[in-house]
């Protein structure tokens, strides 16, 4: 950690002295990388480490994984032999924006993986884990707010129902969608004014 601080100080000094644009850009990138590395090391230090009981060893960090996205975001973590340990030794702690996997006492080692800074909040209660052959599957249930659906009332004017659907699309749409709807509406009004109806 001390060497990283020294590196950061050196890069800052060089940044102050440099006048060439390309050199300044390279130094700025290096400065950002070093600051991120320092921040990550500080976070790792501040995180509470699991208490070691008896002859337990510190956890090895698990790196390789794949993921799928559906109602759940599924992360597949490959750990050889994980299916051979008892299910109590495979622990996952969820928060609304992260999770912490700990596999205890697998061939005399502990394995750990931390997933931080998820893009969106997850449902802690709905999230879970599964253990398969050589794989731990972590299932993050997405926390979603119910979108209100446009009403389709059979007793009202059909064009009013269509307008409600279009209003809903317009409200939920991005800028391109709004521009497209506005353009179609203006063109339709211009044709109506000229008496050029398509029907």
TrEMBL record:
<dbReference type="GO" id="GO:0044548">
    <property type="term" value="F:S100 protein binding"/>
</dbReference>
<keyword id="KW-0539">Nucleus</keyword>
<dbReference type="InterPro" id="IPR052289">
    <property type="entry name" value="Calcyclin-binding_UBL-bridge"/>
</dbReference>
<dbReference type="Pfam" id="PF04969">
    <property type="entry name" value="CS"/>
</dbReference>
<feature type="domain" description="CS">
    <location>
        <begin position="60"/>
        <end position="156"/>
    </location>
</feature>
<dbReference type="InterPro" id="IPR015120">
    <property type="entry name" value="Siah-Interact_N"/>
</dbReference>
<dbReference type="InterPro" id="IPR008978">
    <property type="entry name" value="HSP20-like_chaperone"/>
</dbReference>
<dbReference type="GO" id="GO:0005634">
    <property type="term" value="C:nucleus"/>
</dbReference>
<comment type="function">
    <text>May be involved in calcium-dependent ubiquitination and subsequent proteasomal degradation of target proteins. Probably serves as a molecular bridge in ubiquitin E3 complexes. Participates in the ubiquitin-mediated degradation of beta-catenin (CTNNB1).</text>
</comment>
<keyword id="KW-0963">Cytoplasm</keyword>
<dbReference type="GO" id="GO:0005737">
    <property type="term" value="C:cytoplasm"/>
</dbReference>
<dbReference type="InterPro" id="IPR037201">
    <property type="entry name" value="CacyBP_N"/>
</dbReference>
<dbReference type="GO" id="GO:0031625">
    <property type="term" value="F:ubiquitin protein ligase binding"/>
</dbReference>
<keyword id="KW-0597">Phosphoprotein</keyword>
<dbReference type="Pfam" id="PF09032">
    <property type="entry name" value="Siah-Interact_N"/>
</dbReference>
<dbReference type="GO" id="GO:0007507">
    <property type="term" value="P:heart development"/>
</dbReference>
<dbReference type="InterPro" id="IPR037893">
    <property type="entry name" value="CS_CacyBP"/>
</dbReference>
<feature type="domain" description="SGS">
    <location>
        <begin position="123"/>
        <end position="199"/>
    </location>
</feature>
<keyword id="KW-0833">Ubl conjugation pathway</keyword>
<protein>
    <recommendedName>
        <fullName>Calcyclin-binding protein</fullName>
    </recommendedName>
</protein>
<keyword id="KW-0007">Acetylation</keyword>
<dbReference type="InterPro" id="IPR007699">
    <property type="entry name" value="SGS_dom"/>
</dbReference>
<dbReference type="InterPro" id="IPR007052">
    <property type="entry name" value="CS_dom"/>
</dbReference>
<dbReference type="GO" id="GO:0015631">
    <property type="term" value="F:tubulin binding"/>
</dbReference>
